[in-house]
Write a structure and sequence with these properties.
mainly alpha, 0% strand, elongated
Length: 75
């Protein structure tokens, strides 16, 4: 069976994805990861970005600690 590719603008793609359920979007993301078309961010990159946000917004240490506890609980 031949594969068909359809080009969509970013707006049309977002409009189409917004009609899907969370599970359907998760399945799409899982497929992209399996095909190595998308790579989730590494822990090192997440830490770097989070550190920059904390520094830039001058957040107190307690806020950062609470965010870390929350994210670990979501694993």
């Amino acid at each position: 069976m031949a594969e068909v590719a359809i080009k969509l603008s970013k707006d049309k793609l977002i409009e189409g994805l917004s009609t899907l359920s969370f599970k359907e979007i998760k399945d799409i993301m899982d497929s992209l990861i399996q095909k190595k078309l998308f790579r989730p961010p590494t822990a090192k990159r997440i830490y770097k970005e989070a550190s920059e946000i904390v520094r830039r917004k001058k957040l107190p240490q307690e806020v950062a600690e609470e965010a870390v506890k929350w994210s670990r609980a979501k694993k």
